[in-house]
Amino acid sequence: MQIFWLKRNLRLQDSEPFYQSMKEFRQFGPVLPLYIHEPSLINQPDVALQHQRFVQETLQALDTELRGVGGQLLQVTGEAVETLDRIHQARPIRRICTHRETTQNSQYARDRKVRQWCLENGIELVEFGHNGVVRGAQEALSFPDYFAASVRVKLKDPRGTDLTERFAEPPVAASAAASVPLARGDDKPLRLRGGRRQAEKMLQRFFTVRNIHQYPFQLSSPNTAFEGCARISAYLAYGIVSDREVFQAVDRVVTDGHQRLDQSEFQTLQKRARFFLDRLLWRRQYIQAFETNPRLETECMLAQFNGVREAEFNAVFYDAWTSGTTGFPYIDAGMRCLHDTGWINMRLRATLVSFATMNLWLPTTRVAQFLATQFLDYDPAIHHVIHQVVSGTSTFDGLMVYDPIKQGQDHDAEGAFVRRWLPELDDLPGSAVHDLSQTARCLSDKARAMGLAPYPAAIVDHRVTANVAKRRVNDLQKGRQDSGHRQMGLL
Ligand SMILES: Cc1cc2nc3c(=O)[nH]c(=O)nc-3n(C[C@H](O)[C@H](O)[C@H](O)COP(=O)(O)OP(=O)(O)OC[C@H]3O[C@@H](n4cnc5c(N)ncnc54)[C@H](O)[C@@H]3O)c2cc1C
Questions:
Q1: What predicted TM-score, i.e. pTM, was given to this entire model?
Q2: Is 233 in the pocket of ligand 1 (CB under 6 A)?
Q3: pLDDT one-digit tens code per residue, 262-290
Q4: Which residue range is the domain that position 46 belongs to?
Q5: Are both 353 and 449 inside the same structural domain?
């Protein structure tokens, strides 16, 4: 029997491990699709209930899809080696096919244990690379080559075929849903839902000539980004869609534009498509950076920063920042929006992190850990590297300290976003929500009726703290080796 092991690769479409195991079922035996609910992963501090629910919704949809082609998904609660061993005792496993992950260090350690167990038991373990990321001495394709190869591939989709004879009957019983430990935190009422169908809806919604055309003008403001961005990151993070599917969607838009637009409009479209693809290029670069430097999950890239912010940790600042009560309206609105939706746009993420690590001097890894629980699309490989870039603890060039007031004035000029998420400021008109002399101790009629306290005064002087932080970061960075990396998309 073979195992098709689903981890952060929760799809059947464009799935090499699924395809290969199905194709070679005569040689290696029938295939058992397996998901393991690992308590050690669920209990990690960066895993939150919203992630778990999103995964569960996806697994339910996957099971339905598998049943549509004659199989079913076996879900078991337990640690990976112990679960695989139990299955192996019930029915010998000849081969395990899965994806090679670039994710938390604990999962890397888990994969090593599985590899060792496979070796001891004479089981072949095939780990397929993805996202164009390479391990060890392998050489990565350049992004243009990787993109070109990806759009040429004929992506496989098993839907509509009868594969019944290729599936194995589950040799052990599925675990009861109640046996799965609950992850920490609350679910988010306005987050995206899991499942392949939801992912496909997002792809269909976004990838049109019109949206790609407008994308560069929509992504920086939270008022436009919810509609104007692709909103596919959580589906990519859990492998519900592959990056190759996204590349092909971009390619289809460009082909469509070529047929419909005049030359100059088409050239503009091409530029905008490239602008969008740059983001997918950064995505791959960040994942590769984490693959080669996994200690970034817990340590700063520049070792001289380790322990520096930690030594001055201010719990009052941390609580104000995490609860959206710093007295800086744009920061607090961003945080409270995140609490409810699990998503904010990239610029606002960088602004929140810059404020926390520069103005409040909070430790980078602690900030990253908290936001990991808040972002539905939390992808350790991207997340930890970007935090290091924004907080100045990396070897990436350029340091940008975002002004929390100016960011609000630039990207929420009329204050609609701030008023939506800070009812305390509901009575302030237009841009007055960015004037700290008016927001301090402000309490709108609406907020009073809701029983809220007045909006707090600013907890720091943002200009003074920014200057101090810039000087300290620059001093600590002195003498660093230039990595040749450019900051990706944050300036
Ligand atoms: C502090 C911080 C933490 C972040 N943490 C994560 C994370 O955990 N997971 C995650 O997927 N993204 C993360 N990002 C990157 C980016 O904010 C999100 O990918 C993006 O906002 C997701 O929304 P979208 O799908 O609508 O993206 P779009 O703007 O529509 O972009 C399309 C896709 O390109 C990729 N992408 C876009 N911007 C970036 C970027 N700057 N770096 C890398 N890839 C990018 C994503 O896969 C995204 O889905 C982080 C950014 C910052 C500043």
A1: 0.97
A2: yes
A3: 999 999 999 999 999 999 999 999 999 99
A4: 2-130
A5: yes
